[in-house]
Amino acid sequence: MEARRGTLIIILALIALSSISTGEALSSDYYQTTCPNLRQIVCDAVKKKINETAVTIPAVIRLFFHDAMITGADASALIALPTEDAEKDSSDNKSLAGDGFDTVIRAKKEVEKACPGVVSCADVLALATSCAIELSGGPSYTVDLGRYDGLVSKASLVDGNLPGPNFDLDKLIAIFDKHGFTLVDLVALSGAHTVGFCHCSRFADRLYNYNGQLGATDPTFNPQFAEQLKLACPTNVGPTIAVNLDPFTPITFDNLYFSNLVNGYGLLTSDEVLYTDTRSRPIVQWFAANQTAFFEAFVIAIGKVGSLDVKTSANGEIRKECTSYNKKQ
């Protein structure tokens, strides 16, 4: 009991540390006079898109994270260049679902109708992420606003700066630590895998070639789950076939992801390692037992994502269209 209490104290201390602001000055009422109905406009667009396809939920969340982790929360991941060497063209971003981009583009168009030339694509993306999380059962939280859109988007900047599906905890920590995230932030943000899907190729080695041994299956898999995955993802499976990251509530933002890790239902190596590594295991166990604790930690962590390298009028712009710069680059 004392050991458990000590672990809990450590986790709570790390959560408190995570709440320290690291970004530029933003404000929740930034558009109070210039676009007072902004959140409602964006959420309505997100809801409409979710009604068309539930893929919208993880697509928007993942787009927000992939965007912020490269040059900051500046919508640089939405830029499309004729040379096809923007961030979205990098190998790590090729798997980003088009529904995420489409959601932000649609929302921006609606915002432009009500408040032309006022709201950045970066802020629309941040709000769309919050809306997607709330509409899928996750926490409702206030989004600080005032970002400008970035003026740089290069595929070459992406390589090595996003977490990979086969990463162990040391590699994950290296990616997150350079942005000021704590271990609690890392685990909480990984909880976004409570929604969405993953292509079979991203975890095939765990099923058929564990540790380089042909035919070997990762023993940390729940055996029944491993057999189900082999049926869904046979050795000759096509590159477009995917399975749900959370096999039980794949379109609900909840804490079941962490219970899945405890029970051997983590799909990716980078998921399951959060439980198998003793450094992060207590956090996984805490979030599995307490959804409120997960939600609170997630809100802090996603706020830090949105505060990464925020652009201002000095080094950014308010794009008219999210996929292209206003100024000639």
Automatic annotation (TrEMBL):
PROSITE patterns documented for this protein: PEROXIDASE_1, PEROXIDASE_4
Cofactors (names): heme b; Ca(2+)
Molecular function per GO: heme binding; lactoperoxidase activity; metal ion binding
Keyword flag DNA damage: no
Protein localization: Secreted
EC code: 1.11.1.7
Binding sites annotated in the UniProt record for heme b: H193
Positions with a binding annotation for substrate: P163
Residue positions binding Ca(2+) 1: D67, G72, D74, S76, E87
Keyword Phosphoprotein: no
Signal peptide annotation: 1-25
Pfam families: peroxidase
Top-level taxonomic group: Eukaryota
Positions contributing to Ca(2+) 2 binding: T194, D246, T249, D254
Reaction catalysed by this enzyme: 2 a phenolic donor + H2O2 = 2 a phenolic radical donor + 2 H2O
Any single GO BP term: response to oxidative stress
Annotated Plant heme peroxidase family profile domain residues: 25-326
Keywords: Calcium, Disulfide bond, Heme, Hydrogen peroxide, Iron, Metal-binding, Oxidoreductase, Peroxidase, Pyrrolidone carboxylic acid, Secreted, Signal
Chief location bin: secreted
Cofactor: how and how many bound: Binds 1 heme b (iron(II)-protoporphyrin IX) group per subunit.
TM helices/strands, residue ranges: none
GO cellular component, one term: extracellular region
Site feature (Transition state stabilizer) residues: R62
Similarity comment: family membership: Belongs to the peroxidase family. Ascorbate peroxidase subfamily.
Protein name: Peroxidase
Source species of the chain: Rhynchospora tenuis
